[in-house]
Amino acid sequence: MKRHTNVTQRQEALAERHLCEAIASLETAEECRAFFRDLCSPAELQAMADRWAVVERLRRGLPYREVHRATGVSITTIARVARFLANGNGGYALAASRLTSAPRSNGGGRAAGARDV
């Protein structure tokens, strides 16, 4: 992770928390899309979308090579996603389980449309 030499760890943690609060305040997939397109470079956004595509396939039990063929994501990145899916902070699993259990609608709500980000 990038370290700022003039920022304390507490300040970095607070900045991360504020970012998370901003994301949590968004209500629809369209709002999330607009926010992330403003926040991230196209390459950063693509990297996150690629990792999410890997999560979906790993949760279905697909082997790494099949995930790689379907997504073009490197085996190294697939392994890293798998490691965090199994032993990370629980974010991948939480979001995936909420999407799986959320009723689908065309209303653009966060749970139903979150894959569109």
Topology:
Elements (H helix, E strand, L loop, with lengths): L8 H17 L3 H11 L2 H18 L4 H8 L3 H13 L3 H11 L8 H4 L4
Shape: globular
Characterize the main sheet: none
Strand content: under 5%
What's the CATH topology name?
Trp Operon Repressor, Chain A
**SSE succession:** HHHHHHH
Radius of gyration: 16 Å
Average predicted confidence as pLDDT: 88
What's the helix count?
7
User: What is the second-level CATH architecture?
Assistant: Orthogonal Bundle
Helix content: over 70%
Cα-to-Cα separation, first versus last residue: 24 Å
Total beta-strand segments: 0
* CATH superfamily membership: TrpR-like
CATH class: Mainly Alpha
Would you write up a description of this structure?
The protein has seven helices and no strands. Helix 3 crosses helix 5. The protein has a single domain (28-116), classed as Orthogonal Bundle (Trp Operon Repressor, Chain A), CATH 1.10.1270.10. It is an all-alpha fold.
